[in-house]
Amino acid sequence: MPLPFGFKLKRTRRYTVSSKSCLVTRIQLLNGEFVEFTLSVESTGQECLEAVAQRLELREITYFSLWYLNKQNQQRWVDLEKPLKKQLDKYGLEPTVFFGVVFYVPCVSQLQQEITRYQYYLQLKKDILEGRIPCSIEQAIRMAGLAVQADFGDFNRYESQEFLQKFVLFPIGWIQDERVLEEATQEVCRLYQTYRGLPAAEAEMLYMQEVEKIEGYGQESYHAKDSQGTDILIVSCLDGIIVKHKNGKPPVLFNWNDINNMTHNKSFFALELANKEDTIQFQTEDMETSKYVCRMCLARHKFYRINKSIAVLDFVCIFFSSPQSKPQPYMIAPAQLHYNGHYTSQDSLYINNQNGYYYHSQTSLDRSPHEFNGRIRNGSVYSAHSTSSLNNPQHYLQHSPMSSNPSITGSDVMRPDYMPTQLQNSRRSSVQSFVVL
Question: Biased-composition ranges for Polar residues (predicted)?
Fold first, then answer.
């Protein structure tokens, strides 16, 4: 009798998966580790993201997504609504997918879950060390001191000076002078001593608060030309879209509230302003680039407007509430990363309960195993609930995908003393957080 899902039983009694029906996805996490998930070839980016979120025991997936390198070696965010395999086959340089922060928040204190803050911290540290967020040497020293305290714990005066020299503390290739590098490392060591006793979570929070003050935080840039053919950078940021000219002209900011819509046509990307009838048009490299820039800018436009509205509502609730009452945690409904000419409502994907908005996936991973007899419609083996199962109490333990450890129950997540397994392991093996020279 043939086995389901394209499985073939060899004499070794080990199963292999037919490449025609399944996809083994290799994903690099923010701590540098790689995980693999076996998905259907029709599985969407959203299903893959949910599998990663459950592996990390992460509920606030709003801010995160998956990205890959295209054939021009450029970073491209996955369209979560489309099959992942088709995107990688058509555009990807390699089959590896990367997990990261796609939506940055104006204030990191709004991140509710500790594992969310930890993953966010890893992303910001990566942004600093890889030079995506430029900083001064004074800022780099302060952040390096906090990062060392967060990743390695309290200072040991007998080994710290030599110990720190083994790791990349500053942006790669940033300090060329050996003497300046040694002096900066000594200053980091001095700061490191002053942080003795500071818990890792607090050091991470201070690091993130330092980064969010830096110009360039939360920005993503795209190369283009203006109507005169001059080279420019289209920069998507927390406040709106900045047009930076390479010829020395001052940058121009278009606030999200002033932008009515964004469109693309062939290789052109256009901004439709709310208070003007005409549009501002830019030319990108090709049609695929203009489509991608439009999709990402529309997603950020929606996200930041929703984020601002909820922040104002939260402030009003706090202002009119009694001093004893505390604001309930919430999750912002994420903007879709798929653009089909207009915004698509996702109201049905979010449950508004007493704790605010929680993500409720409608993908096949959320269906009960009884509904599909142990299978899901796209051909994958049903192995676990999606991240929505982490939001509500469960009466049983379930196993995460590709993991032998039982997943946590929803009631455990709400315990004040709960620390996710992923975070515990990261604390114990935090040496991986820095790159060894």
Answer: 383-410, 421-437
Phi-psi label, residue 356: left if phi above 0, alpha if psi -120 to 50, beta otherwise:
left
| Residue 1 pLDDT grade (very low, low, confident, very high; cuts 50, 70, 90) | low
CA distance linking residue 50 with residue 88, whole number of Å? 18
147 and 205 Cβ atoms separated by less than 8 Å: no
Distance CA(16)–CA(22), nearest Å, equals: 10
**pTM for this prediction:** 0.71
SS (H, E, C) 314-367: HHHHHHHCCCCCCCCCCCCCCCCCCCCCCCCCCHHHEEEECCEEEECCCCHHHC
Q: Which amino acid is at 429?
A: S
CB distance 126 to 147 below 8 Å: no
The pLDDT tens digits of the residues spanning 250-278 come to: 999 999 999 999 999 999 999 999 887 77
Domain ranges of the chain: 108-211, 219-360
Whether CATH 3.40.50.1370 fits 108-211: no
Q: In what order do the strands lie in the sheet with 64-69?
A: 34-40, 22-28, 97-101, 64-69, 75-77
Q: Encoding tokens for residue 176?
A: 């060329």
435 pLDDT higher than 70: no
CATH number of 219-360: 2.30.29.30
Among residues 348, 315, 346, the alpha carbon closest in space to that of 330 is found at: 315
How far apart are the C-alpha atoms of 90 and 71, rounded to whole Å? 9
